[in-house]
């Protein structure tokens, strides 16, 4: 009972955090096609997690610090590449895919060596809550605090940022500072989720879009809490489906794989509608 309760709490909280980070990233970059997975944050955090485990063993505190650093480095790399190309929506997608591919390949390479020291390393590759245990609860609270503090501080500023940098400055909002703060919060929060539960993609992409569709607005004061609720439902449902429906038939499938199964087609549709001139 304790294990099932922890697993339900962890999957729900992780879904909420990833959904909020998706809102922060999409609004700060004014790009509806990004989340921590698309921008390479997740794969960078995973690679640094594996590297730290390989050299120092699995210690949640050390791994969390390394993952946070890896996520921010990969985000910075994506932004630099995208801005060097053109800074457009497609530039960020292409740059993010490139960085994700790079760090994913490095993570796969490291996995063969890390498994010797940490047998559950492969679980992090797909994103799963099978290792839910009480010891990681304090580390999960860190991203919860980050996004909880970021919401009241950034929601209104992100709304202004959507109007453009010049208009934001005229309204008293520093666009660079707002973008930096939201990117840091999103990068740190999602990286810690990755080091705890693995690479879970598309929650941060899907939840904000569903929220905007449901309430027909881009006001982050409303979108962020609704996205958090949707993220909780989506990821908890994926994990519940995995352990109650799939496990007795084929064995337990990681929740991250189930989310990607539905998230990837959603992303393709979003790309098509975005670049054929129709509104998303």
């Amino acid at each position: 009972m304790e294990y099932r309760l922890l697993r339900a709490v962890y999957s729900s909280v992780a879904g909420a955090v990833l959904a909020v980070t998706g809102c922060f990233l999409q609004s700060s970059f004014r790009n509806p096609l990004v989340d921590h997975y698309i921008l390479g944050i997740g794969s960078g955090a995973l690679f640094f997690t594996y590297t730290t485990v390989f050299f120092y063993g699995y210690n949640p505190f050390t791994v969390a610090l390394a993952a946070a650093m890896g996520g921010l480095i990969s985000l910075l790399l994506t932004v630099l590449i995208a801005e060097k190309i053109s800074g457009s929506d497609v530039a960020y997608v292409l740059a993010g895919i490139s960085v994700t591919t790079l760090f994913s390949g490095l993570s796969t390479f490291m996995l063969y060596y890390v498994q010797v020291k940490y047998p559950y390393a492969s679980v992090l590759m797909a994103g799963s809550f099978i290792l839910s245990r009480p010891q990681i609860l304090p580390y999960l609270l860190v991203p919860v605090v980050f996004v909880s503090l970021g919401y009241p501080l950034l929601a209104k500023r992100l709304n202004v940022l959507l109007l453009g940098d010049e208009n934001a400055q005229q309204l008293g909002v520093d666009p660079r500072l707002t973008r930096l703060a939201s990117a840091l919060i999103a990068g740190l929060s999602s990286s810690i989720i990755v080091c705890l539960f693995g690479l879970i993609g598309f929650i941060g992409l899907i939840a904000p879009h569903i929220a905007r569709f449901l309430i027909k607005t881009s006001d982050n004061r409303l979108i962020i809490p609704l996205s958090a609720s949707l993220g909780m439902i989506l990821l908890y449902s994926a994990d519940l489906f995995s352990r109650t429906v799939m496990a007795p038939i084929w064995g337990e499938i990681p929740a991250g794989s189930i989310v990607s199964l539905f998230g990837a087609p959603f992303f393709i549709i979003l790309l098509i509608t975005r670049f054929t001139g129709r509104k998303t």
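The chain has a mean pLDDT of 90. The radius of gyration is 18 Å.
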